[in-house]
Amino acid sequence: MNKKILIIALICCVSLKIMAQGSDCKVLVPDLTGKYTGECKNGLAHGKGTAEGKDKYVGNFKKGLPHKEGIYYYNTGEIFDGNWRNGMKNGVGKLSTKIKGKDTTIVGVWKDDKLQPKEDKTPKYEILNSVGVLNSSIRKTGEGNKVVIKFYYSGIAELGKFTFTANFYSTGTQEIVNNDIVCQAITFPLHVKYSYTVPEKFGYATQYDDFEFIIYQPGQWEVQIRH
User: Fold this and answer.
1) Could you tell me if 71 and 57 are in contact, meaning their C-beta atoms sit under 8 angstroms apart?
2) What is the pLDDT of residues 139-186, one digit of tens each?
3) How are beta strands 219-226 and 145-153 bridged, if at all?
4) What secondary structure letter does DSSP report for 19?
5) In Å, how far are 134, 166, 211, 224 from 208, measured between CA atoms?
6) What does the DSSP 8-state code read for residue 26?
7) Angle value at C-alpha 196, between 193 and 197, nearest 5 degrees
8) Residue 99 CB-density burial (10 A; 0-12 exposed, 13-18 middle, 19+ buried)
9) Residues with Cβ < 8 Å from 213, sequence gap 6 or more?
10) pLDDT higher than threshold 90 for residue 193
């Protein structure tokens, strides 16, 4: 019985100590200054706690600032439920607010209190067909509205080695400039198909090849097709 009483007494002392610490703890966000209950370290809110002033926050603290998971209740009526770092929204979170008088929930990723734009998952380009091609590459070289297409034969850009049997361009104009095909006045996405013959290496026969691609994003691009 004495051991049980001693354990209960110790628990009570620890609880009272934590409460006392909470009452003396500082929260370093001005709008949360007023009342604090929770864990404390070196005179600052640290660990789980609740702070209430002009605004209210329930969650985790570090060195007096909201940190990690927590819910912030703004006096304007907005509520942010998510991740914090050093007193600012950082990471995944959900903001409940009003836009043009309508209740709206915004779910996204924040960095230093700023909502980050959603990542554009649209591919920059796509190779749809590649028959008889040794290898190919598509790369953006700058801003603008032009696509340069280079056909290589045995490591040399040599357009004259290729006999085109069918071509398709979804948009723009095409001309040959310095042994390259140059597409301009494009409305992206640009869809291009080539069917052609090219001499086989180490022989006199010809091979029938196809290459088809789409470039989705505007800019200046270079396409290399190697045989």
Assistant:
1) yes
2) 999 999 999 999 999 899 889 999 999 999 999 999 999 999 999 999
3) parallel
4) H
5) 13, 11, 11, 18
6) B
7) 160
8) exposed
9) 125, 126, 127, 128, 138, 191, 192, 223
10) yes
